Amino acid sequence: MGETCPFGTDVQRYWDKRFEYFLRFNDGIKIDKEGLYSVTPEKIALEIAEHTKGDVIVDAFGGVGGNAIAFARTGKKVYCIELDEDRKSFIEHNAKVYGVDDLIHTIQGDFFAKASTVSAKTVFLDPPWGGPSYKESGSFKLNNFSPDGTKILDYAFLNFDEVVLMVPTIFDFSEIEKFDKQYDLQDNVINGEIISQTIYFS
Ligand SMILES: C[S@@+](CC[C@H](N)C(=O)[O-])C[C@H]1O[C@@H](n2cnc3c(N)ncnc32)[C@H](O)[C@@H]1O
Question: pLDDT tens digit string along 168-191?
């Protein structure tokens, strides 16, 4: 039997995948319940980092650093914004575990307030999907993101040249037609299963 999840049985299935999330999990990775169910698995985060063109990235919704660490491992400089003070400190700690803390500058606060304080042309957006039960709605709309995805994308298109958004597999793509933007789509695959998709707007 596997190790019992310290954050409750409702997220045991995420805990069982902790080494998919961070290969070096046992080297002292720090995580909390929300960080556990929302982190981008290491393999996928690296694929996104390789596909992203810019060298200086704003990671708008840092979480526990899954994406920020991958961006830094591919040599990019990252301004990593996170609202939650504890998770912001976990990003700093986890970046040290991977030896990339010199490339990640963390900022605690709201993306809309903090993004304009740094200079970058690329923004990576992985906003909360509303918790582990997000699939219950059947189809995922921009207003299921929190903050609202329309507000996030309006802001991003106004302030950045390259916009990268991660969405659930049940995302309703008709939602982004109103922005009239071209985009590439990447399937995020783990063990043969598409677990999310990444939209690269151009
Ligand atoms: C889906 S998680 C990001 C996971 C991250 N990509 C990772 O791999 O660890 C979303 C994060 O956005 C943070 N967040 C929510 N609203 C925010 C805001 N307005 N500005 C900045 N961060 C916010 C949450 O606290 C949460 O940690």
Answer: 999 999 999 999 999 999 999 999
Q: Ligand 1 centroid vs 128 CA: distance in angstroms?
A: 6
Could you tell me the pLDDT band of residue 1, with boundaries at 50, 70 and 90? Answer: low
Q: How far apart are CA 87 and CA 62, in angstroms?
A: 8
% the chain with pLDDT above 90? 94
CATH 1.25.40.890 for the 9-130+151-201 domain, yes or no: no
DSSP reduced 3-state for 115: helix
The bridge status of strand 56-59 relative to strand 77-82 is parallel
Q: What sections of the chain are H helices per DSSP?
A: 12-15, 18-21, 33-38, 42-51, 66-73, 85-97, 111-114, 149-159
The domains of the chain are located at 9-130+151-201
Ligand 1 first shell, C-beta below 6 A:
34, 38-40, 61, 63-67, 81-84, 87, 110-111, 126-128, 147
Strand-pairing partners, residue 12, are none
